[in-house]
Design a protein that fits this description.
Helix 2 runs antiparallel to helix 3. Helices cover 39% and strands 20% of the residues. By secondary structure, it is α+β, with helices and mostly antiparallel strands.
């Protein structure tokens, strides 16, 4: 079943439920600051597991004590879809366990 791109209005409505996430061009993005490099690395591993479980992957960047994500749906022509918001919600659910701010 094809995944349909969301309208700008739908994206803005869904972003209101995900503080810290924003639309940057054609991607949803979010950066997290953590208490240490180890905490950030652990979060990357957990995000990677969620991405494999959902079969939907973001660009995921590990900094010293930061984790950044950038996601859109390739199969929808690089548009933002409900799949991207599903991943964002799952990441938000696990972020507090890693001390993300």
């Amino acid at each position: 079943m094809p995944v349909e791109p969301l309208s700008r209005t739908e994206i803005e409505s869904r972003l209101a439920e995900l503080p810290g996430w924003k639309l940057d061009g054609d991607r949803l993005t979010r950066a997290y600051r953590l208490d240490s490099h180890i905490a950030a690395a652990a979060m990357v591993v957990h995000v990677a597991r969620v991405q494999d479980e959902l079969d939907h992957h973001s660009d995921l960047t590990l900094g010293y004590n930061t984790v950044s994500l950038s996601v859109h749906t390739h199969s929808a022509g690089g548009a933002v879809t409900e799949k991207d918001f599903g991943l964002a919600r799952r990441v938000e659910d696990l972020a507090p366990a890693h001390g993300a701010h």
